[in-house]
Structures are given as structure tokens and as C-alpha cells.
Amino acid sequence: MDISLIHINIMPYHASSLPLVKLVNNGKVCAPRIRNLLGDREASITPKQTHPTSLRFSWRISSSFSSSATESRPIMEDEMKKMERFDSDSAASLLKELRGTFASGKTKSYEWRVQQLKNMIKMIDDNERAIMEALQQDLAKPRFESFVSEISLTKAACNHALKELKHWMKPEKAKTAITTFPSSAEIVSEPFGIVLIISAWNYPFLLSLDPVVGAIAAGNSVVLKPSEISPATSSLLAKLLEDYLDSSAVRVVEGAVAETTALLEQKWDKILYTGNGKVGRIVMAAAAKHLTPVILELGGKSPVVVDSNVNLKVSARRIAAGKWGCNNGQACIAPDYIITTKAYAPTLIDGLKNILEEFFGKDPLESKDLSRIVNSNHFSRLAKLLDEDKVSGKIVHGGQRDETRLMIAPTILLDVPEDSLIMNEEIFGPLLPIITVDKVEDSFDIIKSRSKPLAAYLFTSSKKLEKEFVENISAGGMLINDTVVHLTNPSLPFGGVGESGIGSYHGKFSFDAFSHKKAVLYRSLYGDAPVRYPPYTPGKLRILRAILDGSIIGAILALIGFGKKKLE
Amino acid sequence: MALAELGLGPLGDSLEELRWTFESGKTRSISWRKAQLQALLNFLRDNEEQILEAIHEDVGKHRVEAFRDEVGVLIKSLTHNLDCLEKWVAPKKTKLPLAFFPATAELLPEPLGLVIIFSSWNFPMSLALEPLIGAISAGNTAVIKPSEISPTCSSFLATVIPRYLDNKAIKVIEGGAAIAAQLLEEKWDKIFFTGSPRVGRIVMSAAAKHLTPVTLELGGKCPVVLDTRFSSSEMEVVVKRIAWGKWGLCNGQSCIGVDYVLVEEKSAFTLIGLLKKAINKFYGKNTKECNDYVRIINEHHFERLHKLIRDPEVANSIVHGGSVDKEKLFIEPTILLNPPLESEIMTEEIFGPFLPIITLKNIQQSAGFIKSRPKPLALYVFTKDETLKKLMISQTSSGSITFNDVAFQFLSDSLPFGGVGQSGMGRYHGKFSFDEFTHEKAVLRRTLLLDLEPRYPPWNDFKLKFIRLLYKYDYFGLLLLLLGLKR
């Protein structure tokens, strides 16, 4: 490993805590960055806030260890070995610490939650440029896109939660019935405890922090595991969250499969995972061992049905913006494929071509407004989809790629066979197959024969078709005459169904997703009806029957001995 | 492996039929749902006698208890659902920010598909049919796998339900662990399980293979916290309710029954005296001969329970009862005072007629005691002290809290019933049952008439400013920007 900079923090007030060490490689913090390995309690107090006298040392080491740092080499290697392995023990001690914080009740207070959310807004405002740069580094995401779909949405989530939190936290009054009379009832939202959030690389900032906002708003302690596939954002998140949020309750663990496995072995009170169905199954199976409830935000092939009676320009634009304007197709709700009529397909293709040129110019590979493919694995996966024999001849637009820069141009394919790879896995990239049918209604059967998608889109001006589509197609969410924007609306739950996931979040739904709804019933000791207690008699049965039927008059009649039904 | 491949052709065919019925869309119509709920109501009314007998046969519950906790409760739920169904199925309009204009948004409840309900033996009718009411109300097709430990009720359901309900949409499949394991191999759209945490884990692991959401209704040790600052007449009512919550709910064999009592040292003996009095009043001097007193479900559970009190230290702590009769599967109402906290009776859910009393120096310590143990399904707190009430609500976590009574939360349609942590996940009863079997589909409708240019690439600074204002909902700023007046 090429190490150029080491930070060591020493907390003088904690005899038991060891120095925490941060390895920095060319300005980026190395993953995994679990300083907890070296000391049990260090990160629970950020030096700036509570330990003004704590010391922070930094020194440079040349890669050959030739200079003043030579003597520290043996310790370094030893520590590095430890740090490279975030194992079950480290995960367990991390949880133990967070449990301590949660048990103290600190995270439950309204003030703490508000402070954390405010800090997060400040964190975003202070670091807008750094966030955009990290996203640029990981995905070549255009600044505009980063701002619109990551920074703004995260901030909007914080603001929304701040505005509504008091209201959300209020116990909800529940009606009581004659069966429990006299009584009053309410439903109290309480935090689950310690929650784990495992996020994805395609919107590495938003998908990490949006759930964290919900978890904090609901009063939980949180561990965030950002995706190792977007390392710049991952390490930026680790740094920012430590600097701005209460690190005795909110932590970031960086790392890949080994670290995630170590985390999943622990007992969490809730897990939210964003990613694919394969890992989703692993997460849920691991959760089952501890009876931990899960939210799985998965993906799927989200279809777009295009009727022939639409405004071509607007429709094509909205489809293109959803497909290529959102991380170049690498979004869980991006349109995956289009279904349209045989007759309309050529018109639609022309419309899309025009829009693509308007968006990204004649040579999209050179466009600054198009994200690249995240890494070479995904690049070759997508190349494989395109190169399949029965598919490669179907390209009607685009198809250019540049492996060295991991760029793939927006690509449209017409009438790819149903049994091709591209039609049987989530594409998650800039390839857009168009399937044609005789009548637009025939699209329903195609969608229904597949697993339920996260989103389903329809472009039409026919109210009848719209109604049938809404009634017949099952999907996590549904959007008529547009793509993707339903995600930005906090009053709609965001989540899948079937293969596209379990549970939902956003806005109040996020708060609910991380809250246990505790039923609270207050009874009084007056009016104790002997009817409920043994010894049991036919008269008691008569009264019970009336009460459970909700009939007050029946109950009174039974009480004074006028019950109609004869028993025994 | 699919059932058909296991040589279970007919079962496999049944599931095929259920899936086909769901696909046909029939179960989505409100009239179908209402007709099924009505038919279930008829089933209960027509067969009340037989049902009460079947429950008596399996669990030995007195018919009044069986009516109160099973038939009556189900009738109440069915009536409630029939009343409310139309309201529940209606799409919910949601508010949209002006930035979305012109658009409308709604939440549309849609059925999940084919669901399975694994029920439990202690309330063999209500725990099978209460979830079914939710599943039908939400428009699903369903399989019920009743517990094989209550065989009379299981076969009664299997024979009589098809005479009342739509056989192509709702089926009862009987069997033991082997059948359950095979059923779990299948892909369901929802699994609803009532039972133990051990089996709950198995169910959830199986569900993970198909990404099937689960509702797990488990149990746990439900504590009573007794603050004895009551008048003596109030104390009598309090102790009666506690005694009823222990022995009057299927004789302790109930997930929301009282497991143990926390009380201050100084009040322990008063409590024991009053409990004895209540037992005597409920069941007379000779509980063994009393018809109102429920027996232990089977030999396996009898042995399990008997073993708990054979631990010498636990045996020493018995202050009342303790006699057993294996022949009759009878265990006397038994009170224990301070059995060791690490003994099995204090670490496992008791699910039987033993009532340990644990004494504390002062009652405020009970919050810490409960917090240090797995989260229970229910917590019962008897007190008049508002501060203690607040403390218990905020400091402890449990599926539900009931003040000054036991088990009544179960009767309320407006309260969610379900656990947290070890006591389960998901909730049901009333509207919550409907929601548990429903996917709330977010539907956003837009028009193609108005389109905001700045949404689309190629990106430039103007568009960035525009979006910035849009996210702030700063419409005046937007106007200025569009007019070219904003820098």
C-alpha cells in the first residue's frame, strides 16, 4: 500500500483509548477506515466538540519509509494489518458502543434529532463542492445532476423532516370501542434502536443519507456502510459524518464484502439495504437469524409503455431525461425498456434520436453532461448484453463505447428477442430496448409476465388506458406521462413490491420505517365487569355476545336478564 | 423444490389454482371481498356450537372463554371490516408541491397476491381466521395452515371452510412440520406466521430466498409492573385482572398472557394473598376438577413446564400450588416468589400456569429490569402515578403497553397488534390487518402539456439556478429568473 500521510488523534482523557489512526492515500482515506479496531471508545467523542485539549498529529512518510518515520514502520505494518480487517469483533464492539449511546436515551430527544438534522444541512452547504467532486470522481456525474438528484434531494429530506418532526413524533390518538370501555388509546412512535444502512454506488450520496435522515428523525443510532464501488464518496461520507454528526450515535463503516459480512453477523434492530435482489436475499437471511426487520430497496426492469397518441417531443424528452439524464441509466428507477406499437416505434425512435442530439450533441462520448459507467466490471457486463448474437444486430441508434474512459453512448435497440440477456436482467446502463406490440394494451401481459418492477411508466392521453394500466399493473410506484420524478415527492412512499423490494421510505414514510408503533391503552379500574372473569355462566356468554357485537342495547338487555338467545 | 416435484401433485395444483384465481382479478372486486367476509360471518354463526366444542376438545377451554377470545372476537372483526372496507380500498389522495403542477398523486392499495397464514394452537380459530379476514379484505388469495397441535380445529377448518368460502381463492392445507417445510419452499407474496421465535427465524430465512415479506407474531415474557399505591378495593380489582391475565387466558398459554410480575418487596405478601383469593374465587378450591380451568395442550408442553419447576432452586421458590397430574395434563395455578433470574423459568417464555413474582426495592427499577431483557410483546403496568406511566412509555420498548389491565389491547381494532425485536415484526387487527396484506402503490399522474426546460440536459448555470429555486419552492425567485431579472 502506498501511504503518504498518517493522522493520529490522541484523546488524553481516556486512559483506555488507543490512538486512532487514519491512513490517507493520495489524499483519499483508505478503505477500510475503522479506527475502532485500535481502541474501543475513541470515536465516540469528537475532539473538536468535547476535548479541546486533544491532540492531532499528522506526519508524512515517504513511500520508501526512508525519512523520520522509519522507526515507526513495524508498528505501522502491524496496525495496517488490523485495519484491513474489520471483522466480527470490531463490528461487535462498535455495536456495543452504540447500544450504550442508545440506552442513554440521548438519541430519543427531539432536540438531539433536530440538532443532527441541522448539522447535516450545514454539512451539505459547507461541502457542496467536495460532494460534487467526489461524485465526479466516482461516476463522472455532471455537476448539475449531482446537485439536482443527490445534494438537493438530501437537503430537501432534511428540511422536510425538520419541519414535520414535531408533528410526526406526537402520539397518534386511537379510537376506543365499547369492548374496551372505559379506556383511551394512542399509538406512540419509538425508535427501534441501532439500525444498519447499506447503500449503493449509483446515487452514493443520496442513497446513503436519505435513509440516515429517516433513522435519525426517528431517534435511532445509525451505522452507515456506503458502497465500496464509489470510494471517493464513501470516504467523503466517512469524514463528513464524523465531523458534523454526533459520532457516539452515528457512524460510517467503509469496506466491501468482508466488512459487510462482519456487520451483518451482528444483531441490528432494523436494516435498510439498497441494491440488488441477490444481495437482498443474503441480507434478509442474515437478518432472519436475529429476527431483524428489513427494508430492501431493490430494482428491476421498470417498463415504459408509450401510446401512439402522445405529444412526441415532450414524451421523448421525459423518457430520455429519465434514462440518460439520471446517471446514464444507472438508476434503480430508470426506464429499463419501452413497449410501444409496431406502427409508432419508428416515430418514437426518431423523436428519441432528436432529443439525444439536443441533450448530448453529435458525439455523446464527448459530452460533459453524461455520466460514465461506474467501473470496468459493469462496463463489460453491459458490453456483453450488447454483444450477444441475437442482440447486436438490433441497435438502431448509438452503440459507441470507449473502454478506456468507461463511456457508453445512449443506445436504442429495436425488437430484441424476449429470451435475450438484455431482456432478462436489469440493464442498469444506457441501453434502451424497444419491444413492439400490435395494440398498446398488449403491453400489459408482457409486464405482468415478469417480476414486479420498482416503477412502471405510461405515456398516453387516453384516460381509459391510464385507468386500466393503474388497475392492472403492479409496481412499487407508478408514474403517468413522466419518468423518475415521483421519487422527489416526499408525500409518496418510495419502495418496491415482490422482486423490487420490501418496505418503503421518503418523507413521513422514512420516519415510520424506522419507528416501532407502540400501542398504548389506558384503562381505568372503574366499571370492572364481572362477565370477563371465571366462573363462566351462560349469562356471561349472553353479555359478551352483545358487547362483542358492538350492541349497547343488547348488552343492557342481557345485563338486566332480557337476553334473547337461550343457551345450554 | 416445488411441491409437484416432491410428488405432492394435488398440493402443487392447489397453489397453481390459487395463483390463477388471483391473476383473474376476481379477488380484487369489493363485492367478492364482502361476500367472503359475510360468508365467514355465516360460518361462525352457523357453526358456533361445533367450533366451541372443537376448541374445547383441543385446548380444553370453557365455551365462554372460547366465545370471548375466539368466536366473539372474530365476529367483532368481521363486522368492523364489513363496515369499513369501502373506505379502506379507496385511493388516498396526497398533497403535491406546486413545483409538480400540473399533476395529481395518490396511494392506491393493491393486494399482494397469494399469501399463507401459519396459525398457532393456543387460539386455534382466531389466530387462523383473524389474519384471513385481513388477507381477504385486502383482496388476496390465501392458504391457511392451521397448527397440527390442535387437530380437531384444524380438520374442522379444513372440512367446513370450503363449504362457505370461495374454494378457488382460499384453501386450508393441513399438516405438520414436514408439510410446513414444503409450503415454505414455495414462493408466496406474503407469509403471516404466529408462533415461536425459533420457528419465526426458520420462516424468515425461507422467505428471504424469494424476497417474500413476512409478518411474525411471536411471544416473549410479558411482564406486569405493579405499583401497589392503590386503595384496598382497587387492589382487589387489580389483582383480579392480573390473575385473569395469567390463568384466564388459555391458562397462561397465550402470547399476550402475563408471564411474571414485578412488585416492590414490601408488597409481595399482600399480592400473594390476593392472588390466592382470586384463584379461589375463579376456580374454587379444587382447580383440578374445575371445568373453567384450561389444561395443558399436550404431553410435550406438560413435560416442558414440569421441567421448569423441577429445578430445585425454582421448586424452593414456590409459594402456592405446584401440583401436577400428567394423566389429566393438569398443572395447578402456581405462584413463585423470586425464582433465580438465570433459571429457565425467568429466561424462557413460560406459556403455562406459573406466575413468578420478582421483587424490587422500588418500582421505578422495573424499567431497567425490562430494558435489560428481550422486548416483550406486551407490557402491563398497574399504577395511578402519571410520572411512572410516562417513564414506562419512554424508557421501555414492547409491542404494546396497557395500563391497569391485561390483554385488552387485543380487543381494540384501532390499535396495532404486533411485536418488536424478539416478539415479532409487522402488526395486524382492524385497518392494520388490511395494510399488512396490501401494497400501497404510489401513483403520480402528470400531463404532457407543460414542460420545464431546465429539467433537461445540456446543463448550464441558468438551469442550476432554476432548480435551486425550485427545490426551495421559491416561486417568486423563479419568476425573476425567468424574466432575466435575477443575478
Condensed summary:
Chain A is α/β, with parallel strands linked by helices.
Descriptors:
heterodimer; A: 568 residues; alpha/beta; Aldehyde Dehydrogenase, Chain A, domain 1; Aldehyde Dehydrogenase, Chain A, domain 2; 7-stranded mixed beta sheet; 6-stranded mixed beta sheet; 39% helix; globular; disordered N terminus; disordered C terminus; B: 487 residues; 3 domains; 44% helix
Walkthrough of the structure:
The complex is a heterodimer of chains A (568) and B (487). Chain A is of the alpha/beta class. Chain A is built from 19 helices and 22 strands. In chain A, helix 5 (128-139) packs across helix 6. The longest helix of chain A is centred in the first third of the chain and has 27 residues, at 143-169. The model of chain A is unreliable at 1-75 and 563-568 (pLDDT under 50). Chain B is an alpha/beta fold. Chain B folds into 3 domains: 3-218 and 429-440, Aldehyde Dehydrogenase, Chain A, domain 1, CATH 3.40.605; 223-418, Aldehyde Dehydrogenase, Chain A, domain 2; 459-487. In chain B, 44% of the residues lie in helices and 17% in strands. Chain B is built from 18 helices and 18 strands. In chain B, the strands form 4 sheets. A 7-stranded mixed sheet of chain B has the order 10-13-14-9-8-15-16, with helices on both faces. A 6-stranded mixed sheet of chain B has the order 5-4-3-6-7-17, sandwiched between helices. A 3-stranded antiparallel sheet of chain B has the order 1-2-18. In chain B, helix 15 links the parallel strand 15 and strand 16 (400-403). Chain B is globular, with a radius of gyration of 27 Å. At the A-B interface, helix 6, strand 6, helix 10, helix 11 and helix 12 of A face helix 4, strand 2, helix 8, helix 9 and helix 10 of B.
The strand line-up of the biggest sheet of chain B is 10-13-14-9-8-15-16
Helix proportion range of chain A: 25-40%
Stretches of chain B where pLDDT falls below 50 for ≥5 residues? 1-7
Number of domains of chain B: 3
Query: What would the principal axes of the Cα set say about the shape of chain B?
Result: globular
Could you tell me how far the N terminus lies from the C terminus of chain A, measured between alpha carbons in angstroms?
86 Å
Mean pLDDT of chain B, to the nearest integer, reads 91
Instruction: Assign the CATH architecture of the largest domain in chain A.
Output: 3-Layer(aba) Sandwich
CATH level 1 class label of the largest domain in chain B: Alpha Beta
The radius of gyration over CA of chain B amounts to 27 Å
How confident is the prediction overall: mean pLDDT of chain A? 84
Major sheet of chain B: 7 strands, mixed
Largest chain interface and its two residue counts? A-B, 108 and 105 residues
**CATH topology-level fold name of the largest domain in chain A:** Aldehyde Dehydrogenase, Chain A, domain 1
What is the count of DSSP helices of chain A, taking H or I runs of 4+ residues?
19
User: Based on helices, strands and strand pairing, what is the structural class of chain B?
Assistant: alpha/beta
Q: Kindly, what is the distance between the CA atoms of the first and last residues of chain B, rounded to a whole number of angstroms?
A: 66 Å
**How many helix segments of chain B?**
18
Rg value of chain A: 28 Å
Proportion in β-strands of chain A: 15-25%
Q: What structural class do you assign from the helix and strand content of chain A?
A: alpha/beta
Family (chain A): Belongs to the aldehyde dehydrogenase family.
Keywords (chain A): Membrane, NAD, Oxidoreductase, Transmembrane, Transmembrane helix
Pfam family, one (chain A): Aldedh
GO molecular function (chain A): aldehyde dehydrogenase (NAD+) activity
